[in-house]
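Notes taken during the Thursday session

The instructor put the following on the board and asked us to keep it in front of us for the whole hour. The protein is Putative HNH nuclease YajD. We were told not to look anything up and to reason only from what is written here. First, the residues (122 in total):
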Amino acid sequence: MPKSAPTPCRHHGCAQLLDVPGYCEEHARDSIGWQSDQQRGTRHQRGYGSRWDKLRKRILARDLGLCQTCKRAGRLRPASMVDHILNKARGGTDDEKNLEAICRDCHKRKTGRESHGLDGAK
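Then, after some discussion, the predicted structure tokens were revealed:
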């Protein structure tokens, strides 16, 4: 079977050619700030075990299954996730006052802003 043509790194502006689609070594993790699970630990080690699953269901029910970010903007969209208003990396807790239902799109935007320091927190 013939070998596939090399593809450029997915990082915007990088022309490094790769045998497998994705990011080059230089851009593999720096643009998104993710760490491998070996560095982060399992979901249970990070505090997202069965206790979190029960808390998540409670928050989704409390917020009537609606994305609170969209609701504040005058839109009604179903929530599929629960988000820490003040994220854990900045001292947020799993207290119910610090949690809200959120849709996937809003969660991606919020997480992106936080990981790039654009959320206003210092």
